[in-house]
Write a structure and sequence with these properties.
Length: about 110
């Protein structure tokens, strides 16, 4: 598609303000989509030697003891976070039950 240039005839005046015609707006949107699509196509080479995946795989080091240690630490951090969230939820539920009981008793 060819880029759209500014055309003063395509501007309409309504209620004192200028608006681009709907057709021109839709055309520009479509052109932007096509331009974005072509840009993305250039980022990935599918089915060729030296693809992005192969490059990343080759540049990544092998798994070692440090990786396992870090994974274990991350796991422990997740467990602590989950426990904290569960405790908070239990406290909120308990507070809700207490409020309900006070309301029921008329307090």
């Amino acid at each position: 598609m060819q880029a759209t240039s500014y055309n003063p005839d395509s501007i309409t005046k309504a209620n004192g303000s200028s608006k681009l015609e709907k057709k021109l707006i839709e055309q520009r949107i479509e052109e932007d989509r096509e331009r974005h699509k072509r840009t993305r196509e250039g980022h990935w080479a599918i089915g060729q030697e030296g693809t992005e995946y192969a490059k990343m795989f080759d540049e990544t080091s092998s798994t070692n003891s440090d990786d396992y240690r870090e994974a274990g630490e991350e796991w422990e951090e997740r467990e602590v976070a989950i426990e904290a969230v569960e405790k908070e939820e239990e406290e909120e539920e308990e507070e809700g039950r207490k409020k309900k009981q006070r309301k029921k008793r008329g307090e």
